[in-house]
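HUMAN:
Just now I want nothing more than another pair of eyes on a protein record. I would be glad if you read both lines and explained how they fit together. I have put the entry right below:
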Amino acid sequence: MALQRLQKLLARAGVASRRACEQLIADGRVTVDGNVVTTLGTKADPKVQDVRLDGRRLRPQRLEYWILNKPKGVVCTNDDPAGRRRPVDLIPGTKARLFPVGRLDADSKGLLLMTNDGEFANRLTHPRYGVAKTYLATVGGCVTGNDIRHMLRGVRLAEGPARTADVRVVKRGRTRSTVRITLREGRNRQIRRVLARLGHPVRDLVRTRIGRIAVRGLRVGGARRLTADEVQYLKTLSVEAKPEAGPRTPTARRTAPRGRASAGRAAAKQTPTGARKQTKRSQSKHDTDGTGKAGKGHRRREAGSRGGRTRRRDGPPRRGRRPRGHSPQ
């Protein structure tokens, strides 16, 4: 095992959360090879070094992965002062210190992963990996196509626009609708807040799948260990999901024209000042002598004569117009 930070080693041994482990280190309760360590960030290898907490040697726990069909009323935390039911209370036959991968609020139900692998949990929950999570929401009112467009485009919340990756109407009614929603980001109570902004309060919300791992066949409140193939699939899923590309640098914006408008501006900058770029159509229209240049009409227009025509100096005046110098009799 490679060198790891002490707080991570303590957390993997099932002592407490990483933040709580940092406090244990700061209190001087952790020793490495008999020496008290109080500096956060200190690294050690438990295979070759003697790491102890309060005199007891640490032994890393075996990594476990569980799937749970969470019922309503269960809060996604390991420490609830109110004494409500927690997901760990529904996991049978394990002594590992498990924690939920992501969160479902107390009023939501459905698929919840449990593990003691912090890296695994981070890759499935961090928005930059874009792991797809699918929900089935029963809402009030009739969900229209305009509502779907708003959700796909993004509904502005207090922390910024919240977008959905996919929305499908399963059942539409005048007073109640059912929609299937896929997210690739995880804001606090995002689906409930977005639908409430659109005038469709959520009456029931169920998470049905993460990637292709579904909760189907698992009774409400039931839990089971993930198979080795399912764990490997979820790890591959989080690795294959590419982080979102960051904004382009100012240099890239200056050197990379976007679209026809920028390309036109770039071409205009290369054209000499005062020169007018002529299209093939306009050139052929004014090319009267076959030299590739504009004919007499174009030159007269540039010279300032009206409409490219000379004024009539001889002959009778045009109907409805008075000749220059005409005075009424």
Summary: The first helix runs from residue 6 to 12. DSSP finds ten helices and 17 strands in the chain.
